[in-house]
Amino acid sequence: MCNAIFEDQYLLGTALARPIIAKSMIRVAEKYRCDYVSHGATGKGNDQVRFELAFLALKPSIKILAPWRIPEFIERFQGRADLLKFAAENNIPVSSTPKAPWSKDDNIVHCSYEAGVLEDPDHTPPKELWDRTKDPKDAPDQSTEFSVHFEKGLISKVVVGDKEVTDSVESFKLLNQIGCENGVGRVDIVENRFIGLKSRGCYDTPGLTIARLAHLSLEGLVMDGRVRELRDQFVSLTWSRLLYNGMFFSPEREFIENSVVFCQHNVTGVVRLSAYKGNAYVLGRSSDASNLYSQEDASMDSLEGFSPMDTSGFIAVQAIRLKKYGEQKIKDGQPLAKS
């Protein structure tokens, strides 16, 4: 509904998961009357902030153990190499290995990869790193066509061939499957962490990449232009930053979400798409929920409902300040025509 995205590329798959994990941990802590909760996030990442802000908002009296900030712990384990060695010596299964020296974090939304060889921002990610999506070069030579149905901004149905799914979780899984098979949703970025460091991350986000594309396409058809402009300039940007920075359980996030729900009342309709070798494409969209788009008004072959002559006054009014600006630049000896 919000089209959340961080720094124009990251769809916030890890940041989305942390409040959910924290909420479940606090529920368990309360059930068993625990005074402490703990997390394994490092002292250089965002997750320590996300977890702990969530813990303290959900249960202000809770105490937190963060091993990566305990002096005795970091004296023994200087980094991931020491931990991998410890895990091997104690038969503890972990996904990272000396041959695959990067960390992996997987959930229904995405799979993220960082650290190890990825810390060099110019190092090409090994082909075997990408766990979730096919290499676009190995994806099918035939495109996959499907449709995504929305009701008030939320996915209500996904249809692929003869298969139709209406459950929200299963619909998202189906979009994941389509994206995975066609190599959709890979990004490799350097982002600005909340704590002030830059970090390189690789992300597999197939289903959400498709869902966001479809949602944006439908909004273009049914959402008021000025409402969308305000949402994009303030709401989406701010909500994304709040989520990334661990401020999910905050009054400002609740405030912003109320406006998100309001602007989605007419976002009901169907978007047809195609997935092919690393990309998803919109084929068309339709909706009965809004009269903002008129094929007749927009047609270059019809003058019904909209007179081109009406734009003369509109342009003249819009040009008033621009003419004044141009006149001033000429007066200052800096005519715009020569700039």
From TrEMBL:
Protein's recorded name: Argininosuccinate synthase
CDD domains in the record: ASS
Single annotated GO MF: ATP binding
Biased amino acid composition, Basic and acidic residues: 121-140
Single GO BP term: L-arginine biosynthetic process
Domain Arginosuccinate synthase C-terminal as annotated: residue spans: 102-325
Gene Ontology CC terms, in alphabetical order: cytoplasm
Keywords assigned: Amino-acid biosynthesis, Arginine biosynthesis, ATP-binding, Ligase, Nucleotide-binding
Coiled-coil boundaries: none
Organism in which the protein naturally occurs: Xylaria arbuscula
SUPFAM superfamilies listed in its UniProt record: Adenine nucleotide alpha hydrolases-like (SSF52402), Argininosuccinate synthetase, C-terminal domain (SSF69864)
